[in-house]
Amino acid sequence: MDRPTRTAPAFGASWSSLNPPLSSWIMDVINKNGFTKMTPVQSGTIPRAIKNQDCVVEAVTGSGKTLSFVIPVLERITKRDRKYKKGELAAVVIAPTRELASQIHDVFHQFLSSLIPPEDPNENQASSSSSPPPSSSNKKAPYPLPILVTSGTSNPYETFQSLGSNILIGTPGRLASFLLSPRGLSIVRVSELDVLVLDEADRLLSSPDHRRDIERIMKHLPKQRRTHLFSATMTDAVEEIIGLGLRNPVRIVVNLKEKKKGEDAKERRTPTALQNTYMICRHAEKTLQLVRILQAEVQKAEAAKFVVFFSTCAAVDYFYRILSRIPDLSKYHFTSLHGDLPPRIRETALANFINHPSSHLSPAILLCTDVAARGVDFPDIDVVIQYDPPTDPKSFSHRAGRTARAGRRGKAVVLLGKGREEDYIDFLNIRKIPLTKQAYLDSSLNDSEEPTSVDPEALKLLRQIRKSVLTDRELADKGAKAFVSSLRAYTKHEASFIFRLQDIDFHALAISYGLLRLPAMPEIKDWKKKREAYLKRMREKKDEGGQEEDAETQVEKEMNEKEWLDWQDEEIDWDKFSYASKSREQSRILNLNKKKEQFLIKSNEELIEIQAKKKLKLQMRESWSEQKERKLKKEERHDKIDKRKQAQWELAQNNGENLGPIASLRAIKKQKLNLKNDDGDEKDDKDEDEDEGNDQIEWKSLKKEIKSEKVEKRNLKKIDKGGMFDDLD
Ligand SMILES: Nc1ncnc2c1ncn2[C@@H]1O[C@H](COP(=O)(O)OP(=O)(O)OP(=O)(O)O)[C@@H](O)[C@H]1O
């Protein structure tokens, strides 16, 4: 692969073909960026969104969707007859992550700041904010800059007031609190709002928390507005769109067709400039292959920038520390990005990675979770590697789409475990995401056949990683946490018939993680027992004699297929294995001594009792599968109760009776609705239809509302436990 260049992107019409033409100050910024033509999604969306049409837009990653809504928003609000006053909201843009929101904010900022005249101490800027936006020939009056509201935004109300912003960009939770808190309600005027944009709409709507926040925001905003939804994977969310307050939306789908010699043209959901590949290897060889891909791409294709996706924050954190210590990767510059990092650090990490002057002599690698999967416009990414396939298959094309943007070429590789995981290739193909094979890389970084038994270099790498881990006990803790969290994520795969925990060889995976010992998990214990039983059966079969040789080969074959490797815990004295951090080590020693003292002063009977209690506790620990079964049964029970309650409620409705909190909540809602209508809130035919539909689904939404409040309360309690999974907001 050559270094990506801007090759033959599928560009649409020229900007000057737009009728009415864009404002000259907007064209100035477009020209400054060197965007000579519109992309197809831009030529399809901009003219419609500027007029009075709601748009639902689906186009592949990196096709220029951001400008497809930024330009219409700016055109509409700056060309309006009555100019927006300071602090009067004109447009709200919602995005699922703070990284994406911040990027959209930067684009708006770039346009609007182009209007700010150079510093002139004699000018009175305060009086100019409500003046009409200037043309490029008269850049005297700046139009208020947009404001970003996400986690980590400090003093948003003060910034909002001082800037006098008309455009608000943020993540759903923060925007909802910003707009709906008593202070927000008194400061931010929304009655004149013109446009609402949901970027990565399918992601926003598939998360119950985000959806709830968005619905709250939508209810607060005036109905007479334009609403636009954007995503690269919109089809999956079509049903979600219904009832969201869009008015006769126009659906804009930018299709890509790929035609191979002798075949009919096929539709695909990923950019044509993307070389989308998979690599099959054993779980024990995953890290080895990751290291080799990083080396091979630099060596063969002079690749300089990589993004590597893992399924959990803990895995990113661990591999960030481990990979940077592997001698073969000493010239690589690593950055980590995940939702457990504080907002400021996330911001700096992203900026550092983007601005890193990478070359094939000093390549830059971003290790991240799905926090960077959607929308983030990394410039010049050569290769995307998915160490773990995403738990949500919709994320796959978004992750791969961090490369091959705006017509540049790029490559993506997903690592798939030998065996059942290979079914993922067909699974994606059906979803119009075709993958081609990337061969296994041998020790000389050449393409080769997959080895018939585990690559011996995997064990060499295990020893190398262990050597690093032995320098600091904290690395061993992080490794165990990463391993456990990744296994838990594995059980959360939506394609659960492909990604099954029972197919994983824990020893093999532990080799890839460079663990010193296997963590104490009920799942691993069960697995070990089953493994022992299986081995025993195989040995017995072998001992039954007759065709001893055949039986032996059979055992070996099966062992090989199952990747059952000899695993040995690292032989170390765990009491003496220390933390590099002095304070941590001190407290560990303190705790250790305390435990030893307690142990010494206890009588024999007491010790026996303690051990018995411990044993009982261990026996009571459930595996995830048992927990899952219990949860399913509970859900079934709740469903039954719900159905009964719904039937009672419907009966009471018919009889005009009152029925507890749900019925009262419904009455309050109805009352609010009537009050609004009495205020002269005009409703068109479509709204009437929606109300009728809403009546039917009201039972469900009331129930959901009550449930989500309960869940929220429960989550608040859980928050301080520090989740291993990503907090995307
Ligand atoms: N008309 C254009 N000509 C050339 N480059 C463009 C044009 N419009 C946008 N770009 C560039 O293309 C890149 C991708 O744009 P953008 O981030 O809007 O893609 P997207 O479709 O939103 O992708 P994703 O689905 O991943 O969010 C950006 O770097 C942007 O500056």
From TrEMBL:
<feature type="region of interest" description="Disordered">
    <location>
        <begin position="627"/>
        <end position="704"/>
    </location>
</feature>
<keyword id="KW-0547">Nucleotide-binding</keyword>
<dbReference type="GO" id="GO:0003723">
    <property type="term" value="F:RNA binding"/>
</dbReference>
<comment type="function">
    <text>RNA helicase.</text>
</comment>
<dbReference type="GO" id="GO:0006364">
    <property type="term" value="P:rRNA processing"/>
</dbReference>
<dbReference type="InterPro" id="IPR000629">
    <property type="entry name" value="RNA-helicase_DEAD-box_CS"/>
</dbReference>
<dbReference type="GO" id="GO:0016787">
    <property type="term" value="F:hydrolase activity"/>
</dbReference>
<keyword id="KW-0378">Hydrolase</keyword>
<keyword id="KW-0347">Helicase</keyword>
<dbReference type="InterPro" id="IPR027417">
    <property type="entry name" value="P-loop_NTPase"/>
</dbReference>
<feature type="domain" description="DEAD-box RNA helicase Q">
    <location>
        <begin position="15"/>
        <end position="43"/>
    </location>
</feature>
<dbReference type="Pfam" id="PF00270">
    <property type="entry name" value="DEAD"/>
</dbReference>
<keyword id="KW-0690">Ribosome biogenesis</keyword>
<feature type="compositionally biased region" description="Basic and acidic residues">
    <location>
        <begin position="627"/>
        <end position="647"/>
    </location>
</feature>
<keyword id="KW-0694">RNA-binding</keyword>
<feature type="compositionally biased region" description="Acidic residues">
    <location>
        <begin position="679"/>
        <end position="695"/>
    </location>
</feature>
<dbReference type="GO" id="GO:0005524">
    <property type="term" value="F:ATP binding"/>
</dbReference>
<dbReference type="GO" id="GO:0005730">
    <property type="term" value="C:nucleolus"/>
</dbReference>
<feature type="domain" description="Helicase ATP-binding">
    <location>
        <begin position="46"/>
        <end position="252"/>
    </location>
</feature>
<keyword id="KW-0698">rRNA processing</keyword>
<dbReference type="InterPro" id="IPR014001">
    <property type="entry name" value="Helicase_ATP-bd"/>
</dbReference>
<dbReference type="InterPro" id="IPR014014">
    <property type="entry name" value="RNA_helicase_DEAD_Q_motif"/>
</dbReference>
<protein>
    <recommendedName>
        <fullName>ATP-dependent RNA helicase</fullName>
        <ecNumber>3.6.4.13</ecNumber>
    </recommendedName>
</protein>
<dbReference type="Pfam" id="PF13959">
    <property type="entry name" value="CTE_SPB4"/>
</dbReference>
<comment type="similarity">
    <text>Belongs to the DEAD box helicase family.</text>
</comment>
<keyword id="KW-0067">ATP-binding</keyword>
<dbReference type="InterPro" id="IPR001650">
    <property type="entry name" value="Helicase_C-like"/>
</dbReference>
<dbReference type="Pfam" id="PF00271">
    <property type="entry name" value="Helicase_C"/>
</dbReference>
<dbReference type="InterPro" id="IPR011545">
    <property type="entry name" value="DEAD/DEAH_box_helicase_dom"/>
</dbReference>
<feature type="domain" description="Helicase C-terminal">
    <location>
        <begin position="286"/>
        <end position="449"/>
    </location>
</feature>
<feature type="region of interest" description="Disordered">
    <location>
        <begin position="118"/>
        <end position="145"/>
    </location>
</feature>
<feature type="region of interest" description="Disordered">
    <location>
        <begin position="538"/>
        <end position="559"/>
    </location>
</feature>
<feature type="short sequence motif" description="Q motif">
    <location>
        <begin position="15"/>
        <end position="43"/>
    </location>
</feature>
<dbReference type="InterPro" id="IPR025313">
    <property type="entry name" value="SPB4-like_CTE"/>
</dbReference>
<dbReference type="GO" id="GO:0003724">
    <property type="term" value="F:RNA helicase activity"/>
</dbReference>
